[in-house]
Amino acid sequence: MATRFDPFQELDRLFGQVFTADRASTTMPMDLYRAGDHYVLHLDLPGADPGTIDVSVEDRALTIRAQRTARTEDGVQWLTKERPVGTYARQLTLGAGLALDQIEATYTDGVLTLSIPVAEEAKPRKIDVQHGDRAQQPAIEASAAS
Question: What Pfam families does the record point to (predicted)?
Answer without folding.
Answer: HSP20
